[in-house]
Amino acid sequence: MDRPTALTDLPRGAVLLGLDPGTKTIGVAVGDPGWQIASPLETIKRTKFTKDAERLETLIAERRAGGIVMGLPVNMDGSEGPRAQSVRQLARNLVQLRGWTLPIVFWDERLSTSAVERFLVDEADMTRKRRGEVVDKMAAAYILQGALDALRRSD
Questions:
Q1: Which of 20, 44, 84, 114 has the fewest CB atoms within 10 Å, measured from its CB?
Q2: Would residue 126 count as lying in a domain?
Q3: Which residues form the domain of 112?
Q4: Which SMART domains does this one have (predicted)?
């Protein structure tokens, strides 16, 4: 990725996928073409880069996605540590090794997982096991919803 991509670079009216890349999983969410609502889609258990990328490419094709909003785990002080560098490397690999051309936007995901966990405990009264199954895709939806809200505000 040679240059940073801004929210304004995303194609208007395109379906967007939200990604919450972690070390063991990638949470995936999908937004509607009107950029109103982000919905959890699935959690990909990470294996090898090639297999992970193939699954993402299948989802992009199935949903006819025109852009990606990727959660960037920024530290509370705004700096980027090893986890953020790992996410940026994933994006670079998708572009350089897999030839992705659709825009990838990074979105500050600070506290997204803890906000989702809090909701699942307090509001949904979900068991720990069930939370573990849904938290990553819910966090991806939380990340994508933040970006969709910002896109609508910029209109």
A1: 114
A2: yes
A3: 7-153
A4: YqgFc
pLDDT tens readout for residues 108-140: 886 555 555 565 555 555 555 555 566 788 889
Q: Answer whether 38's CB lies under 8 Å from 19's CB.
A: no
Residue 1, classified by CB atoms within 10 Å of its CB into exposed (0-12), middle (13-18) or buried (19+), is: middle
Q: Into how many domains does the chain fold? A: 1
C-beta neighbour count of 76 within 10 angstroms:
7
- Does residue 1 register a pLDDT over 60? no
CA–CA distance, 110 with 14 (Å, rounded to integer): 25
Tokens representing residue 83 in the block: 């986890």
Residue 82 lies inside a defined structural domain of this protein = yes
One-letter identity of residue 141:
A
Residues 6+ apart with CB under 8 A from 44: 25, 26, 27, 28, 52, 55, 56
- Spatial strand order in the sheet of 15-21: 38-45, 25-31, 15-21, 65-72, 104-108
CATH number reported for the structural domain that contains residue 11 in this entry: 3.30.420.140
Contact 70, 87 (CB under 8 A): yes
Task: Classify residue 26: in a domain, yes or no.
Answer: yes
